[in-house]
Design brief:
Helix content is 77%, strand content 1%. It has 424 residues and is an all-alpha fold. It has 2 domains: 7-190, MFS general substrate transporter like domains (Growth Hormone, Chain: A), CATH 1.20.1250.20; 214-419, MFS general substrate transporter like domains (Growth Hormone, Chain: A, Up-down Bundle). The chain has a two-stranded antiparallel sheet. A hairpin with a 2-residue loop joins strand 1 (199-200) and strand 2. It is globular, with a radius of gyration of 22 Å.
Length: 424
Protein backbone atom coordinates (compact mmCIF):
# COMPACT_ATOMS: atom_id res chain seq x y z
CA UNK A 1 0.00 0.00 0.00
CA UNK A 2 3.04 2.29 0.14
CA UNK A 3 2.49 3.21 -3.48
CA UNK A 4 -0.60 5.25 -2.53
CA UNK A 5 1.41 7.35 -0.06
CA UNK A 6 3.74 8.33 -2.90
CA UNK A 7 0.95 9.67 -5.11
CA UNK A 8 -0.15 13.28 -5.35
CA UNK A 9 -2.83 14.29 -2.87
CA UNK A 10 -5.47 14.82 -5.56
CA UNK A 11 -4.74 11.40 -7.06
CA UNK A 12 -5.09 9.77 -3.65
CA UNK A 13 -8.47 11.43 -3.16
CA UNK A 14 -9.65 10.43 -6.65
CA UNK A 15 -8.67 6.80 -6.14
CA UNK A 16 -10.32 6.72 -2.70
CA UNK A 17 -13.61 8.03 -4.10
CA UNK A 18 -13.38 5.60 -7.03
CA UNK A 19 -12.82 2.63 -4.73
CA UNK A 20 -15.78 3.67 -2.55
CA UNK A 21 -17.93 4.04 -5.68
CA UNK A 22 -16.91 0.59 -6.88
CA UNK A 23 -17.68 -0.97 -3.52
CA UNK A 24 -21.15 0.60 -3.51
CA UNK A 25 -21.72 -0.53 -7.08
CA UNK A 26 -20.80 -4.17 -6.46
CA UNK A 27 -22.74 -4.28 -3.18
CA UNK A 28 -25.82 -3.12 -5.10
CA UNK A 29 -25.30 -5.65 -7.89
CA UNK A 30 -24.39 -8.71 -5.84
CA UNK A 31 -26.96 -8.24 -3.08
CA UNK A 32 -29.59 -9.17 -5.68
CA UNK A 33 -27.90 -12.40 -6.84
CA UNK A 34 -29.72 -14.68 -4.37
CA UNK A 35 -32.87 -12.56 -4.46
CA UNK A 36 -33.98 -11.93 -8.04
CA UNK A 37 -34.52 -15.55 -9.19
CA UNK A 38 -36.68 -16.20 -6.12
CA UNK A 39 -38.59 -12.94 -6.63
CA UNK A 40 -39.30 -13.71 -10.28
CA UNK A 41 -40.45 -17.20 -9.37
CA UNK A 42 -42.75 -15.78 -6.69
CA UNK A 43 -44.38 -13.65 -9.40
CA UNK A 44 -45.57 -16.94 -10.90
CA UNK A 45 -42.79 -17.46 -13.46
CA UNK A 46 -41.68 -20.88 -14.65
CA UNK A 47 -38.00 -21.87 -14.64
CA UNK A 48 -37.86 -20.99 -18.33
CA UNK A 49 -39.29 -17.52 -17.69
CA UNK A 50 -36.87 -16.98 -14.80
CA UNK A 51 -34.07 -17.79 -17.24
CA UNK A 52 -35.47 -15.36 -19.81
CA UNK A 53 -35.57 -12.48 -17.33
CA UNK A 54 -32.10 -13.15 -15.91
CA UNK A 55 -30.65 -13.60 -19.41
CA UNK A 56 -31.92 -10.18 -20.51
CA UNK A 57 -29.31 -8.61 -18.25
CA UNK A 58 -26.56 -9.80 -20.59
CA UNK A 59 -28.51 -8.60 -23.62
CA UNK A 60 -28.52 -5.05 -22.28
CA UNK A 61 -24.84 -5.37 -21.52
CA UNK A 62 -24.01 -6.66 -25.00
CA UNK A 63 -25.97 -4.02 -26.86
CA UNK A 64 -24.34 -1.15 -24.98
CA UNK A 65 -20.74 -2.27 -24.41
CA UNK A 66 -19.24 -1.02 -27.68
CA UNK A 67 -20.89 2.41 -27.62
CA UNK A 68 -20.04 3.00 -23.97
CA UNK A 69 -16.42 2.07 -24.60
CA UNK A 70 -16.28 4.57 -27.45
CA UNK A 71 -17.85 7.22 -25.22
CA UNK A 72 -15.25 6.60 -22.50
CA UNK A 73 -12.44 7.13 -25.02
CA UNK A 74 -13.87 10.06 -26.94
CA UNK A 75 -15.80 11.98 -24.26
CA UNK A 76 -15.28 11.19 -20.59
CA UNK A 77 -14.41 8.26 -18.35
CA UNK A 78 -16.27 9.90 -15.45
CA UNK A 79 -19.43 10.36 -17.52
CA UNK A 80 -19.55 6.64 -18.32
CA UNK A 81 -18.95 5.74 -14.67
CA UNK A 82 -21.81 8.03 -13.62
CA UNK A 83 -24.11 6.43 -16.19
CA UNK A 84 -23.36 2.99 -14.74
CA UNK A 85 -23.82 4.18 -11.16
CA UNK A 86 -27.07 5.96 -12.02
CA UNK A 87 -28.53 2.85 -13.64
CA UNK A 88 -27.55 0.60 -10.73
CA UNK A 89 -29.12 3.12 -8.35
CA UNK A 90 -32.38 3.35 -10.31
CA UNK A 91 -32.94 -0.22 -11.49
CA UNK A 92 -33.70 -1.91 -8.13
CA UNK A 93 -36.58 0.52 -7.48
CA UNK A 94 -38.21 -0.59 -10.72
CA UNK A 95 -38.46 -4.24 -9.67
CA UNK A 96 -40.78 -3.23 -6.82
CA UNK A 97 -43.44 -1.95 -9.21
CA UNK A 98 -43.21 -4.55 -12.00
CA UNK A 99 -45.45 -7.60 -11.90
CA UNK A 100 -45.29 -9.08 -15.42
CA UNK A 101 -42.57 -11.13 -17.07
CA UNK A 102 -42.28 -8.98 -20.26
CA UNK A 103 -41.84 -5.84 -18.15
CA UNK A 104 -39.22 -7.58 -16.02
CA UNK A 105 -37.31 -8.65 -19.14
CA UNK A 106 -37.14 -5.07 -20.45
CA UNK A 107 -36.14 -3.67 -17.08
CA UNK A 108 -33.51 -6.37 -16.55
CA UNK A 109 -31.95 -5.44 -19.91
CA UNK A 110 -31.85 -1.81 -18.74
CA UNK A 111 -30.12 -2.99 -15.55
CA UNK A 112 -27.46 -4.64 -17.73
CA UNK A 113 -26.30 -1.23 -18.94
CA UNK A 114 -24.83 -0.63 -15.49
CA UNK A 115 -21.99 -3.14 -15.69
CA UNK A 116 -21.13 -2.27 -19.28
CA UNK A 117 -20.80 1.41 -18.31
CA UNK A 118 -19.30 1.26 -14.84
CA UNK A 119 -16.62 -1.38 -15.43
CA UNK A 120 -15.50 0.23 -18.70
CA UNK A 121 -15.17 3.74 -17.26
CA UNK A 122 -13.74 2.54 -13.94
CA UNK A 123 -10.95 0.48 -15.47
CA UNK A 124 -9.99 3.25 -17.89
CA UNK A 125 -9.95 5.99 -15.24
CA UNK A 126 -7.91 3.92 -12.78
CA UNK A 127 -5.29 3.35 -15.49
CA UNK A 128 -5.31 7.08 -16.30
CA UNK A 129 -4.69 7.99 -12.66
CA UNK A 130 -2.07 5.33 -11.93
CA UNK A 131 1.60 6.31 -12.48
CA UNK A 132 3.16 4.31 -15.28
CA UNK A 133 5.85 2.77 -13.08
CA UNK A 134 3.26 1.52 -10.55
CA UNK A 135 0.31 0.93 -12.85
CA UNK A 136 0.02 -2.82 -12.29
CA UNK A 137 0.17 -2.45 -8.50
CA UNK A 138 -2.44 0.33 -8.39
CA UNK A 139 -4.81 -1.47 -10.76
CA UNK A 140 -4.45 -4.66 -8.70
CA UNK A 141 -5.34 -2.91 -5.45
CA UNK A 142 -8.25 -1.03 -6.99
CA UNK A 143 -9.71 -4.28 -8.37
CA UNK A 144 -10.12 -5.62 -4.84
CA UNK A 145 -13.45 -3.79 -4.64
CA UNK A 146 -14.95 -6.58 -6.76
CA UNK A 147 -14.26 -9.62 -4.51
CA UNK A 148 -14.91 -7.46 -1.45
CA UNK A 149 -18.35 -6.52 -2.77
CA UNK A 150 -18.95 -10.09 -3.90
CA UNK A 151 -18.16 -11.41 -0.44
CA UNK A 152 -20.55 -9.05 1.39
CA UNK A 153 -23.39 -8.36 -1.06
CA UNK A 154 -24.79 -11.87 -1.61
CA UNK A 155 -24.60 -12.70 2.10
CA UNK A 156 -26.47 -9.48 2.89
CA UNK A 157 -29.06 -10.20 0.21
CA UNK A 158 -29.52 -13.79 1.32
CA UNK A 159 -29.93 -12.71 4.95
CA UNK A 160 -32.52 -10.09 4.07
CA UNK A 161 -34.38 -12.59 1.89
CA UNK A 162 -35.24 -14.56 5.00
CA UNK A 163 -35.98 -11.63 7.29
CA UNK A 164 -37.56 -8.70 5.37
CA UNK A 165 -39.77 -8.18 2.35
CA UNK A 166 -38.67 -7.66 -1.23
CA UNK A 167 -39.30 -3.87 -1.24
CA UNK A 168 -36.77 -3.42 1.58
CA UNK A 169 -34.17 -5.54 -0.22
CA UNK A 170 -34.55 -3.61 -3.47
CA UNK A 171 -34.42 -0.32 -1.57
CA UNK A 172 -31.13 -1.27 0.12
CA UNK A 173 -29.67 -2.28 -3.24
CA UNK A 174 -30.78 1.03 -4.76
CA UNK A 175 -29.28 3.03 -1.90
CA UNK A 176 -25.93 1.30 -2.42
CA UNK A 177 -26.11 2.29 -6.08
CA UNK A 178 -26.97 5.86 -5.20
CA UNK A 179 -23.99 5.98 -2.83
CA UNK A 180 -21.81 4.79 -5.73
CA UNK A 181 -23.11 7.68 -7.83
CA UNK A 182 -22.35 10.22 -5.09
CA UNK A 183 -18.81 8.94 -4.59
CA UNK A 184 -18.14 8.79 -8.33
CA UNK A 185 -19.36 12.35 -8.79
CA UNK A 186 -16.55 13.55 -6.51
CA UNK A 187 -13.78 12.22 -8.76
CA UNK A 188 -11.86 14.34 -11.23
CA UNK A 189 -10.44 13.10 -14.49
CA UNK A 190 -6.79 13.51 -15.29
CA UNK A 191 -6.29 15.33 -18.62
CA UNK A 192 -5.33 12.79 -21.24
CA UNK A 193 -2.53 13.74 -23.60
CA UNK A 194 -1.93 12.34 -27.06
CA UNK A 195 1.52 10.84 -27.25
CA UNK A 196 3.56 11.99 -30.26
CA UNK A 197 7.04 11.18 -31.49
CA UNK A 198 9.38 14.12 -30.77
CA UNK A 199 10.98 15.44 -33.95
CA UNK A 200 14.05 17.52 -34.68
CA UNK A 201 13.60 19.29 -37.95
CA UNK A 202 12.25 16.69 -40.34
CA UNK A 203 13.85 13.71 -38.59
CA UNK A 204 12.79 11.90 -35.40
CA UNK A 205 15.06 12.30 -32.40
CA UNK A 206 15.32 8.50 -32.20
CA UNK A 207 15.71 6.24 -35.19
CA UNK A 208 15.40 2.99 -33.28
CA UNK A 209 13.14 0.80 -35.42
CA UNK A 210 9.90 -0.35 -33.79
CA UNK A 211 7.89 -3.41 -34.69
CA UNK A 212 4.76 -2.39 -36.58
CA UNK A 213 1.55 -2.26 -34.58
CA UNK A 214 -1.38 -4.01 -36.15
CA UNK A 215 -4.92 -2.68 -35.97
CA UNK A 216 -7.06 -5.45 -37.33
CA UNK A 217 -10.74 -4.94 -37.99
CA UNK A 218 -13.32 -6.83 -35.96
CA UNK A 219 -14.01 -9.28 -38.79
CA UNK A 220 -10.31 -10.18 -38.96
CA UNK A 221 -10.17 -10.73 -35.21
CA UNK A 222 -13.17 -13.05 -35.29
CA UNK A 223 -11.49 -15.31 -37.84
CA UNK A 224 -8.12 -15.43 -36.06
CA UNK A 225 -7.75 -18.77 -34.28
CA UNK A 226 -5.54 -17.25 -31.61
CA UNK A 227 -8.52 -15.12 -30.52
CA UNK A 228 -11.69 -17.00 -31.40
CA UNK A 229 -10.67 -20.14 -29.49
CA UNK A 230 -10.37 -18.21 -26.19
CA UNK A 231 -13.67 -16.51 -27.05
CA UNK A 232 -15.35 -19.91 -27.45
CA UNK A 233 -13.87 -21.02 -24.12
CA UNK A 234 -15.40 -17.93 -22.51
CA UNK A 235 -18.72 -18.68 -24.23
CA UNK A 236 -18.88 -22.10 -22.58
CA UNK A 237 -17.98 -20.64 -19.19
CA UNK A 238 -20.58 -17.90 -19.69
CA UNK A 239 -23.19 -20.61 -20.22
CA UNK A 240 -22.01 -22.26 -17.01
CA UNK A 241 -22.05 -19.03 -15.02
CA UNK A 242 -25.50 -18.09 -16.33
CA UNK A 243 -26.80 -21.49 -15.20
CA UNK A 244 -25.24 -21.02 -11.77
CA UNK A 245 -26.57 -17.51 -11.12
CA UNK A 246 -30.05 -18.27 -12.42
CA UNK A 247 -30.77 -21.64 -10.87
CA UNK A 248 -28.67 -22.03 -7.72
CA UNK A 249 -31.07 -19.99 -5.52
CA UNK A 250 -34.02 -21.97 -6.90
CA UNK A 251 -32.25 -25.29 -6.31
CA UNK A 252 -31.53 -24.43 -2.66
CA UNK A 253 -35.14 -23.34 -2.21
CA UNK A 254 -36.36 -26.62 -3.72
CA UNK A 255 -34.18 -28.64 -1.32
CA UNK A 256 -35.73 -26.80 1.61
CA UNK A 257 -32.45 -26.63 3.55
CA UNK A 258 -31.54 -23.82 5.93
CA UNK A 259 -28.76 -22.23 3.88
CA UNK A 260 -28.17 -18.62 2.88
CA UNK A 261 -27.37 -18.69 -0.85
CA UNK A 262 -25.18 -15.64 -0.33
CA UNK A 263 -22.73 -17.80 1.61
CA UNK A 264 -21.96 -19.67 -1.62
CA UNK A 265 -21.09 -16.42 -3.38
CA UNK A 266 -19.20 -15.18 -0.34
CA UNK A 267 -17.04 -18.31 -0.24
CA UNK A 268 -16.45 -17.96 -3.99
CA UNK A 269 -15.44 -14.30 -3.59
CA UNK A 270 -12.94 -15.04 -0.81
CA UNK A 271 -11.24 -17.83 -2.77
CA UNK A 272 -11.30 -15.65 -5.90
CA UNK A 273 -9.58 -12.87 -3.96
CA UNK A 274 -6.90 -15.29 -2.73
CA UNK A 275 -6.22 -16.78 -6.15
CA UNK A 276 -5.84 -13.34 -7.74
CA UNK A 277 -3.04 -12.54 -5.31
CA UNK A 278 -1.08 -15.62 -6.31
CA UNK A 279 -1.52 -16.38 -10.00
CA UNK A 280 -0.50 -13.12 -11.69
CA UNK A 281 3.21 -13.23 -10.94
CA UNK A 282 3.35 -17.02 -11.29
CA UNK A 283 1.81 -16.91 -14.77
CA UNK A 284 4.56 -14.58 -15.98
CA UNK A 285 7.04 -17.32 -15.09
CA UNK A 286 5.09 -20.50 -15.85
CA UNK A 287 2.85 -19.32 -18.69
CA UNK A 288 -0.87 -18.56 -18.97
CA UNK A 289 -1.86 -21.99 -20.32
CA UNK A 290 -1.30 -23.98 -17.15
CA UNK A 291 -3.50 -21.66 -15.09
CA UNK A 292 -6.27 -21.47 -17.70
CA UNK A 293 -6.39 -25.27 -17.82
CA UNK A 294 -6.53 -25.47 -14.03
CA UNK A 295 -9.31 -22.89 -13.83
CA UNK A 296 -11.48 -24.79 -16.32
CA UNK A 297 -11.07 -27.99 -14.33
CA UNK A 298 -12.03 -26.07 -11.16
CA UNK A 299 -15.24 -24.94 -12.85
CA UNK A 300 -16.05 -28.52 -13.84
CA UNK A 301 -15.36 -29.84 -10.35
CA UNK A 302 -17.50 -27.11 -8.76
CA UNK A 303 -20.47 -28.03 -10.96
CA UNK A 304 -20.02 -31.73 -10.15
CA UNK A 305 -20.09 -30.81 -6.46
CA UNK A 306 -23.35 -28.95 -6.97
CA UNK A 307 -25.00 -31.95 -8.62
CA UNK A 308 -24.41 -33.87 -5.37
CA UNK A 309 -24.83 -31.02 -2.89
CA UNK A 310 -27.65 -31.50 -0.39
CA UNK A 311 -26.07 -30.05 2.75
CA UNK A 312 -24.64 -26.56 3.48
CA UNK A 313 -20.96 -27.67 3.72
CA UNK A 314 -21.09 -29.10 0.19
CA UNK A 315 -22.38 -25.81 -1.18
CA UNK A 316 -19.55 -23.96 0.59
CA UNK A 317 -16.97 -26.35 -0.89
CA UNK A 318 -18.46 -25.89 -4.36
CA UNK A 319 -18.33 -22.11 -3.87
CA UNK A 320 -14.66 -22.17 -2.89
CA UNK A 321 -13.74 -24.26 -5.94
CA UNK A 322 -15.81 -22.08 -8.28
CA UNK A 323 -14.14 -18.98 -6.84
CA UNK A 324 -10.67 -20.34 -7.59
CA UNK A 325 -11.77 -20.99 -11.16
CA UNK A 326 -13.26 -17.52 -11.61
CA UNK A 327 -10.40 -15.70 -9.90
CA UNK A 328 -7.93 -17.43 -12.18
CA UNK A 329 -9.68 -17.61 -15.55
CA UNK A 330 -10.72 -13.97 -16.05
CA UNK A 331 -7.33 -12.31 -15.33
CA UNK A 332 -5.50 -15.04 -17.22
CA UNK A 333 -7.70 -14.63 -20.29
CA UNK A 334 -7.16 -10.88 -20.23
CA UNK A 335 -3.40 -11.45 -19.98
CA UNK A 336 -3.57 -13.98 -22.82
CA UNK A 337 -5.45 -11.51 -25.02
CA UNK A 338 -2.83 -8.87 -24.22
CA UNK A 339 -0.06 -11.27 -25.25
CA UNK A 340 -1.79 -11.97 -28.55
CA UNK A 341 -2.61 -8.43 -29.69
CA UNK A 342 -1.07 -5.03 -30.17
CA UNK A 343 -1.82 -2.12 -27.88
CA UNK A 344 -4.00 -0.22 -30.37
CA UNK A 345 -6.39 -3.12 -30.97
CA UNK A 346 -6.75 -4.49 -27.45
CA UNK A 347 -10.05 -2.77 -26.81
CA UNK A 348 -11.65 -4.71 -29.67
CA UNK A 349 -9.87 -7.89 -28.61
CA UNK A 350 -11.13 -7.64 -25.02
CA UNK A 351 -14.62 -6.92 -26.35
CA UNK A 352 -14.51 -10.08 -28.48
CA UNK A 353 -13.23 -12.32 -25.71
CA UNK A 354 -15.38 -11.04 -22.84
CA UNK A 355 -18.27 -10.71 -25.29
CA UNK A 356 -18.21 -14.50 -25.58
CA UNK A 357 -18.79 -14.67 -21.83
CA UNK A 358 -21.70 -12.22 -22.08
CA UNK A 359 -23.34 -14.20 -24.89
CA UNK A 360 -23.00 -17.35 -22.81
CA UNK A 361 -24.77 -15.78 -19.83
CA UNK A 362 -27.61 -14.57 -22.05
CA UNK A 363 -27.98 -17.92 -23.80
CA UNK A 364 -27.98 -19.81 -20.50
CA UNK A 365 -30.93 -17.84 -19.24
CA UNK A 366 -32.93 -18.30 -22.42
CA UNK A 367 -32.25 -21.95 -23.20
CA UNK A 368 -31.24 -23.83 -20.07
CA UNK A 369 -34.43 -22.83 -18.28
CA UNK A 370 -36.24 -25.19 -20.64
CA UNK A 371 -33.70 -27.93 -20.00
CA UNK A 372 -34.01 -27.75 -16.21
CA UNK A 373 -37.75 -28.32 -16.50
CA UNK A 374 -36.90 -31.72 -18.01
CA UNK A 375 -33.75 -32.82 -16.17
CA UNK A 376 -34.07 -30.77 -12.96
CA UNK A 377 -31.59 -28.41 -11.39
CA UNK A 378 -29.05 -31.16 -10.71
CA UNK A 379 -29.21 -32.13 -14.37
CA UNK A 380 -28.62 -28.49 -15.30
CA UNK A 381 -25.47 -28.37 -13.16
CA UNK A 382 -24.31 -31.65 -14.72
CA UNK A 383 -24.68 -30.06 -18.16
CA UNK A 384 -22.70 -27.07 -16.89
CA UNK A 385 -19.92 -29.43 -15.75
CA UNK A 386 -19.89 -30.92 -19.25
CA UNK A 387 -19.55 -27.43 -20.74
CA UNK A 388 -16.50 -26.76 -18.56
CA UNK A 389 -14.92 -30.04 -19.66
CA UNK A 390 -15.70 -29.21 -23.29
CA UNK A 391 -13.99 -25.83 -22.84
CA UNK A 392 -11.00 -27.61 -21.29
CA UNK A 393 -10.72 -30.08 -24.19
CA UNK A 394 -11.02 -27.25 -26.70
CA UNK A 395 -8.23 -25.30 -25.02
CA UNK A 396 -6.14 -28.45 -24.57
CA UNK A 397 -6.19 -29.32 -28.28
CA UNK A 398 -6.76 -25.98 -30.05
CA UNK A 399 -5.29 -23.39 -27.68
CA UNK A 400 -2.22 -22.98 -29.87
CA UNK A 401 -1.23 -23.47 -33.48
CA UNK A 402 -1.39 -27.27 -33.61
CA UNK A 403 -2.49 -30.08 -31.30
CA UNK A 404 0.97 -30.92 -29.90
CA UNK A 405 1.95 -27.31 -29.09
CA UNK A 406 -1.54 -26.82 -27.64
CA UNK A 407 -1.09 -29.76 -25.28
CA UNK A 408 2.31 -28.52 -24.14
CA UNK A 409 1.07 -24.95 -23.69
CA UNK A 410 -1.95 -26.11 -21.70
CA UNK A 411 0.22 -27.95 -19.18
CA UNK A 412 2.91 -25.27 -18.95
CA UNK A 413 5.61 -27.13 -20.90
CA UNK A 414 6.07 -24.54 -23.63
CA UNK A 415 5.39 -20.89 -24.35
CA UNK A 416 2.52 -19.37 -26.29
CA UNK A 417 3.32 -19.51 -30.01
CA UNK A 418 0.63 -16.92 -30.70
CA UNK A 419 2.11 -14.39 -28.31
CA UNK A 420 3.20 -11.29 -30.14
CA UNK A 421 5.73 -8.73 -29.03
CA UNK A 422 4.68 -5.18 -29.81
CA UNK A 423 5.97 -1.89 -28.61
CA UNK A 424 3.61 -0.72 -25.82
Amino acid sequence: MKVFLQLERQTQVNLAFLFAAALGFWLSMTSLLPVLPAYIQDLGATDQEVGFVMGCFAIGLLLSRAQLGKMADEKSRKLVILIGAAVVGIAPWGYIFLDSIPEMMVWRAFHGLSIAAFTTGYSALVVDLAPLENRGEVVSYMSLAIPLGMSIGPVLGGYMLGTVGYPVIFSVSALCGMAAFVFASQTHEKPRMIEVTPVLGDRPTSEIPLKPKTNRQFRELMTDKSLYIPSLVMLFIGLLFGTLVTFLPLYIRELGINFNTGLFYGAAAISSFSSRLLIGKASDRLGRGLFISGSLLCYALAMVCLTHANRPPLFIIAGVIEGVGAGTLIPMMIALMSDRSSSNERGKVYSLCIGGFDVGIAAAGFFLGTVTQTVGYQGGFAIAAGLALLAFLLFLTQGNQYVKPSLKFAIGKTGDRYAQKFEG
